[in-house]
Design a protein that fits this description.
Radius of gyration: 25 Å
Distance between the termini: 32 Å
Structural class: alpha/beta
Number of domains: 2
Number of helices: 18
CATH topology of the largest domain: Rossmann fold
CATH class of the largest domain: Alpha Beta
Shape: elongated
Length: about 375
């Protein structure tokens, strides 16, 4: 009997959850009801004012920031707030920054995540229902160069690729600019120029009944930037994106940080914080008490274990354990919760999931049908010690 069958797992090979590997895992958010409710309430309000989410979440490694991002995507797609009148178009990216990264690198990452085909499709749909595409695009972008470049995305082929490179912020040669019928490269006027183009694309999405929202993980990467001018350009890009006038492109940024001020400085400057709003900086903390650990673990086991099959196994094999804590004995479960709670900074979802998985693997390796205290006593100190 393999590991999955041994512990009656429900459609998975282990007790691990990872929405990057299994998208269905995005629906899970164990325990921490107060945090979950607060974030969702902020999301709902954001579609009223400023019109899109603008949020920063932070916490220690293993606190569940990535899971939070994916869970929020699941929430928006399956329980779309009433105030969100368009279908959310949600895009994930893991930020990458090096010592000289600037706003151009950030903009390029956003554009590549969005993709040429998506924007071209939006323009094609707009063309199919309008009598004057030029007028529509100028209304959307509020800029002749952007409207011309957008129109060229319809052409496909070499000219379409050239137009996309323009929107991505590449420096084009004079003859390439002439082919696109634009007077300069995007970004010649600075980072605000690029933000304006992205916000224009957000308005294009709205004309196609979609709402553009970026979920950006690993924002601690901004700390890698060592050049002052580069940092300032990134700061300006974020400040412009956070402006109240931007109601078309939303973002939720996740960063490792033990405290608010532990984040990259450009994320917490006063002009950024006032635009995003203090209520939209949300900490994802460790589980604060042994009761919270118990709730987290019980919810995890209930979801990952096939309940009917486990109940039958408990009865048929006279295992003498509760379905609520299966595959742990009551004593082993309590012991695990106590280990996890001794240092609250280590009571993290990642550690808890790892502890359950490692204990289960040890029991399976010894061909034990349940996890007993001696196994927890062996494994837990290695994870929480």
């Amino acid at each position: 009997m393999d590991f999955k069958e041994w512990f009656c797992l429900n459609g998975r090979e282990s007790f691990t959850i990872d929405p990057k590997v299994n998208p269905d895992d995005a629906r899970f958010y164990f325990g921490r009801k107060e945090i979950k409710d607060r974030i969702k309430a902020q999301l709902r309000r954001s579609f009223v004012e400023p019109g899109v989410p603008k949020m920063v979440i932070y916490g220690s490694f293993g606190s569940g920031k990535t899971q939070t991002l994916f869970h929020l995507e699941h929430y928006l797609q399956n329980e779309r707030p009433e105030a969100c009148r368009q279908t959310p178009r949600i895009l994930h990216l893991d930020l990458e920054m090096h010592s000289k990264s600037d706003h151009k690198g950030w903009h390029l990452q956003l554009m590549e995540t969005l993709g040429k085909s998506t924007v071209s499709t939006w323009i094609e749909r707009l063309f199919s229902r309008t009598q004057n595409l030029d007028t529509e695009l100028r209304s959307i972008f509020g800029n002749v160069n952007m409207a011309e470049a957008a129109k060229n995305l319809r052409a496909g082929g070499d000219i379409g690729l050239l137009a996309w490179r323009w929107f991505c912020g590449y420096e084009l040669k004079p003859n390439e600019l002439e082919r696109l019928n634009v007077t300069r490269s995007l970004g010649d006027l600075g980072s605000g120029d690029m933000v304006n183009a992205l916000v224009g694309i957000g308005r294009l999405a709205e004309r196609n009944e979609e709402k553009l929202i970026f979920l950006m993980d690993e924002a601690e990467q901004f700390k890698n930037v060592k050049t002052g001018d580069a940092t300032e350009s990134l700061h300006t890009y974020l400040r412009k994106l956070a402006e109240p006038s931007n109601s078309s492109v939303g973002f939720i940024i996740a960063s490792y940080a033990l405290t608010l001020d532990d984040m990259a400085e450009l994320l917490v400057r006063a002009d950024v914080r006032t635009r995003i709003g203090e209520n939209n900086f949300i900490e994802i903390p460790p589980l604060p008490s042994i009761r919270d650990v118990e709730i987290f673990l019980k919810e995890l086991l209930k979801e990952l274990v096939e309940q009917n099959k486990a109940e039958g196994k408990i009865q048929n094999e006279s295992l003498g354990v509760s379905l609520e804590t299966y595959p742990f004995t009551a004593e082993a479960f309590d012991m695990l919760c106590e280990f996890a709670s001794q240092d609250h900074t280590k009571a993290l979802p990642r550690n808890l999931i790892k502890a359950v998985n490692e204990c289960a693997i040890s029991a399976w390796d010894e061909r034990k049908p349940i996890i007993e205290p001696n196994i927890v006593n062996e494994i837990a100190p290695l994870i929480f010690g």
